[in-house]
Amino acid sequence: NAGVTQTPKFQVLKTGQSMTLQCAQDMNHEYMSWYRQDPGMGLRLIHYSVGAGITDQGEVPNGYNVSRSTTEDFPLRLLSAAPSQTSVYFCASRLSRTGYGYTFGSGTRLTVV
Amino acid sequence: AQTVTQSQPEMSVQEAETVTLSCTYDTSENNYYLFWYKQPPSRQMILVIRQEAYKQQNATENRFSVNFQKAAKSFSLKISDSQLGDTAMYFCAFMKRGGGSNYKLTFGKGTLLTVNP
User: Fold this and answer.
1) How many CA atoms lie within 13 A of B17 on its CB side?
2) Cβ B44–A106 below 8 Å, yes or no?
3) Tens digits of per-residue pLDDT, A14-66?
């Protein structure tokens, strides 16, 4: 199994540009989440989904949109990139009925200049 | 809301020695899970060990073990026989069991562990 696949691994954007970070999982996990990691801040939840068609905001949702049209895919959209969105982004998924933690993708390092 | 605190931003240990990383958390929940994740320089988040709060027995995974003190809300990670490959950022994390908000993993800010040869 591929697990959680994130693309791209690296990206440089100019301020004001938009882009979509892709995330796909092949484990039939109901729950999917997007986190951002900043130095000294740990990982903070941006948006999450508990199933296809259901999404909601996390701690730091401003400037980001998500959708979940299928169980497998959970893309994260940056609407108008800002330097404050320079970060490492992780997508993660897990089964809802178990206590096992999330499985993470390999991350995307995004730089906004 | 839950909070997770890792009070040691950085630690170092000599190869083959034992090191303990600290984690405390604050919650009003009774049923939850606690995790330690490892993030090596490759950036990949790797689950090291998990503890179910309703189990009194401390979890162990090979060289990794935890000291779970539910009343004190403490969850430390002990790494025995440290290896160079253990050099990584370690994150403590909390997740509610069941009911609402069980989608969310709350992380501490991390402890950077360096294993010296």
Assistant:
1) 12
2) yes
3) 999 999 999 999 999 999 999 999 988 889 999 999 999 999 999 999 999 99
